[in-house]
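Researcher: I'd like a structural prediction for the single chain below. Treat it as a standalone chain; there are no partners to consider.
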Amino acid sequence: MEGPKRHSYSDSKKMKIFNGEFLPHIDSMYNFAYRLTFDDDEAKDFVQETYFKAFRFIDSFQEGTNAKAWLFRILKNSFINDFRKKSKEPAKVDYQEVETYYNSDDVDEHITVDLRVDALQNMIGDEVSNALNALDVDFRTVIILCDLEGFTYEEMAKILDIPIGTVRSRLHRARNLLKEKLKSYAQTMGYK
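Model: Treating it as a single chain, here is the predicted structure.
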């Protein structure tokens, strides 16, 4: 199987493609990265890395094709690689930061109790995000691509590098898992 066709774009052509076809998708790229990471700084890092790679490998992009899907695939691959690397590392806690905060004069019991109340109120609004975040990365990705970003099954198959049948079954399973997570949450909140 041969790899992607390589082009020899001139420097000015590369800049035209980058500015005209890649940059218009920067907000969608950030939204995708944020929904994968739930962290503003990490999302920005992934977007920056994606655009760096897109420019570096621009000769393998076919001008006039689906730039958004191409960029999403780069970002998804970076996220998966980073996720796998991090999952092999032990969890890290910055005890110095925790100790500094709780030993500072700014902390009193009243504030700590209020933080718990705020957290509880935010939990209700964030439960869908939490349920989505709790899904395995493969299931979370298909929901984000389809239900939040609106990609077709064909585009998703290219982004994820899997057959359309796998996209359909993974999406079906992901939606069912999400539904179950939200159903159990609704029951804990007193809904039947």
